[in-house]
Write a structure and sequence with these properties.
Layout (H helix, E strand, L loop, with lengths): L11 H10 L2 H6 L2 E6 L2 E7 L13 H17 L6 E12 L7 E11 L3 E12 L2 E16 L1
Antiparallel strand pairs: 1-2, 2-4, 3-6, 4-5, 5-6
């Protein structure tokens, strides 16, 4: 997997930021874009009781939600102007409970194709400044005309 990508749209960061701001789920979760780079996007969510499951950890749906968005936006950074992406598949492995003050999803493009992109996403819980990998995802995204 190469970490060097050439975006087709030089304005990709603005496109990602505008799209992210329009996502109701990300607003509801209190998610924030931390990094937008060619082929890589990082999203963080602060812990609140409203995002927990019955044991007090981040709910698995929060991991899936921010992981899906981090991967999708990573894919979007490499696509031509006027593109959007939709998820066509993802798989998540929960490695351990997501316990922490912040949840971080880092999406990285593995392959960027004309119509389908594949991404890997690492999801970490951050407690007292220490990150712990709690989930990994692989996801596929289809390019659609905006």
């Amino acid at each position: 997997m190469s970490d060097v990508f050439k975006p087709a749209n030089p304005d990709f960061d603005r496109v990602v930021c505008q799209s992210f701001a329009a996502q109701g789920l990300m607003v509801t979760l209190g998610a924030r874009l931390q990094t937008v780079a060619a082929g890589r996007v990082v999203i963080e969510v602060p812990f609140t009781a409203g995002l927990s499951q019955q044991k007090g950890f981040f709910h698995g749906a929060v991991l899936g939600g921010i992981g899906d968005s981090a991967g999708g936006y990573a894919a979007l950074t490499l696509l031509p102007a006027g593109s959007e992406v939709v998820s066509i598949e993802y798989k998540i492995n929960f490695l351990k409970p997501a316990v922490g003050d912040v949840l971080r999803a880092t999406g990285r493009v593995v392959r960027s194709g004309r119509s389908v992109s594949v991404c890997q996403i690492d999801i970490e819980a951050i407690a007292s400044g220490k990150a712990s990998l709690c989930g990994v995802m692989q996801a596929s995204f289809m390019r659609v005309e905006g």
